[in-house]
Automatic annotation (TrEMBL):
Keyword entries, A-Z: Lyase
Pfam family, any one: MaoC_dehydratas
Lyase recorded as keyword: yes
MaoC-like domain location: 12-118
GO terms for MF: (3R)-hydroxyacyl-[acyl-carrier-protein] dehydratase activity
Keyword Lyase attributed: yes
CDD domains: R_hydratase (cd03449)
One example of a Gene Ontology biological process annotation: fatty acid biosynthetic process
Originating species: Mesotoga prima MesG1.Ag.4.2
Name of protein: Acyl dehydratase
Lineage of origin: Bacteria, Thermotogati, Thermotogota, Thermotogae, Kosmotogales
Domain of life: Bacteria
Length: 136
């Protein structure tokens, strides 16, 4: 997509299933082996009752969407503010939405809202990002 094709209010949504394999791979890659993420027995005794995904895994998926799907290739993360509101459980499918809030034409920057919604409609992650667009 060309920069001039973007508009305020434009959005993109996609579904992703958060699998145990993704969580385990993220734990191995980052070294974050917090047992609430990696140990079923420990997690069962936690307030969540079962394993939950790392919050930063969802942000990593947002990063992949920004760079590959919307706005797409040429999108460079400059800043991300994020609030983790609800846990995402393993094998749960979520809806990730990116919405353009502001366009700074002179600097080719986009401010976007980044959300992750659970199937029951609850917001799991809410945030805003600033992107530099280096595409066409």
């Amino acid at each position: 997509m060309k920069f001039e094709d973007f508009f305020v209010g434009q959005s993109f949504s996609t579904r992703r299933k958060i699998t145990a394999e993704m969580v385990d791979s993220f734990a191995n890659l980052t070294g974050d082996r917090n047992p609430v993420h990696t140990d079923e027995e420990f997690a069962r005794k936690s307030r969540f009752g079962r394993r939950i995904a790392h919050g930063m895994l969802s942000v990593g998926i947002i990063s992949a969407i920004l760079g590959n799907e919307f706005p797409g290739p040429g999108s460079i993360y400059m800043k991300q503010e994020v609030r983790f509101l609800k846990p995402i459980f393993l094998e749960e499918e979520v809806l990730i939405t990116i919405e353009i809030l502001e366009i700074k034409v002179e600097k080719k920057r986009l401010s976007v809202r980044t959300t992750v919604e659970k199937n029951n409609g609850e917001m799991a992650v809410d945030g805003e990002a600033l992107l530099l667009f280096e595409g066409e």
